[in-house]
């Protein structure tokens, strides 16, 4: 007769902490001075992830084009799309485009270039290391996307700001960002009714 023993892992416990557990998250909602104050409270050498409020970010859906190849061309197209909504202010922004499958629209985010340039200086002055700078909407989506169905509305709310996106079969089809009051639930209901 043979018996089966339960499989045992090679190591009982991991001795390496995942990076997201070793870093602090700081929310940037206003001027860089407020971020500096938050950094001052951290121990020197701390890694921190800067989460930029959606009130400071601008988003757009960028259509797919076979003529656009490479990161620089994608960012130029995204700047063109954002310029249609925001005008010449786009020239003072830094634009990044999220990857997407071939043939799908891409999500673009623009942040003020002066603000982005000031963050590493503030971090160095306070002895902390910046591991990433991300908009709050992207942080929320990245935390939830594995649990989301392929087709759904996704929203991130914070006091004063609402960002809402519609994904159908994993592709972004609609995106809306708007101001709202300190209680975002009524604004979310109105936005869903309007966009749907």
Please, could you describe this protein's structure?
The chain has 196 residues and is an alpha/beta fold. Helices cover 33% and strands 31% of the residues. It contains 6 helices and 9 strands, in the order αβαββαββαβαβββα. The protein has helices spanning 19-22, 32-40, 71-86, 113-126, 136-144, 184-195, and strands at 24-28, 47-52, 57-62, 93-97, 106-112, 129-135, 152-158, 161-168, 171-179. The strands form 3 sheets. A 3-stranded parallel beta sheet has the order 1-2-6. A 3-stranded antiparallel beta sheet has the order 3-5-4. Helix 2 runs parallel beside helix 4 (113-126). The radius of gyration is 20 Å and the shape is globular. The model is unreliable at 1-17 (pLDDT under 50).
Structural class, from helix and strand content?
Answer: alpha/beta
Low-confidence stretches: 1-17
Question: What overall geometry do the principal axes of the alpha carbons give?
Answer: globular
| Helical amount | 25-40%
Number of strands: 9
Percentage of β-strand residues: 25-35%
Largest sheet: 3 strands, parallel
Number of helices: 6
Order of helices and strands: HEHEEHEEHEHEEEH
Distance between the termini: 64 Å
Neighbour order of strands in the largest sheet = 1-2-6
Summarize the structure.
This protein has 196 residues and is an alpha/beta fold. Helix content is 33%, strand content 31%. The chain is built from six helices and nine strands; from the N terminus they run αβαββαββαβαβββα.
Attribute tags:
alpha/beta; 6 helices
Summarize the SSE layout with pairings.
Blueprint: H1 19-22, E1 24-28, H2 32-40, E2 47-52, E3 57-62, H3 71-86, E4 93-97, E5 106-112, H4 113-126, E6 129-135, H5 136-144, E7 152-158, E8 161-168, E9 171-179, H6 184-195
Parallel strand pairs: 1-2, 2-6
Antiparallel strand pairs: 3-5, 4-5, 7-8, 8-9
Helix pairs in contact: 2-4
């Amino acid at each position: 007769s043979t018996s089966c023993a339960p499989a045992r892992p090679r190591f009982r416990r991991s001795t390496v902490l995942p990076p997201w557990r070793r870093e602090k998250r700081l929310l940037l909602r206003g001027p860089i001075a407020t971020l500096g104050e938050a950094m001052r409270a951290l121990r020197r050498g701390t890694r921190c992830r800067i989460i930029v409020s959606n009130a400071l970010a601008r988003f757009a859906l960028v259509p797919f084009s076979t003529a656009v190849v490479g990161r620089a061309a994608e960012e130029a197209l995204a700047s063109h799309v954002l310029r249609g909504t925001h005008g010449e202010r786009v020239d003072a922004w830094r634009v990044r485009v999220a990857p997407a499958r071939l043939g799908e629209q891409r999500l673009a985010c623009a942040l003020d270039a002066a603000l982005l340039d000031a963050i590493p200086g503030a971090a160095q002055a306070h002895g902390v290391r910046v591991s990433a700078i991300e908009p709050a909407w992207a942080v929320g989506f990245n935390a939830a996307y594995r649990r989301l169905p392929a087709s759904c509305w996704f929203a991130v709310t914070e006091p004063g700001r609402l960002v809402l996106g519609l994904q159908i079969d994993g592709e972004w089809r609609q995106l809306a960002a708007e101001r709202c009051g300190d209680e975002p639930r009524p604004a979310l209901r109105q936005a869903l009714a309007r966009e749907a």
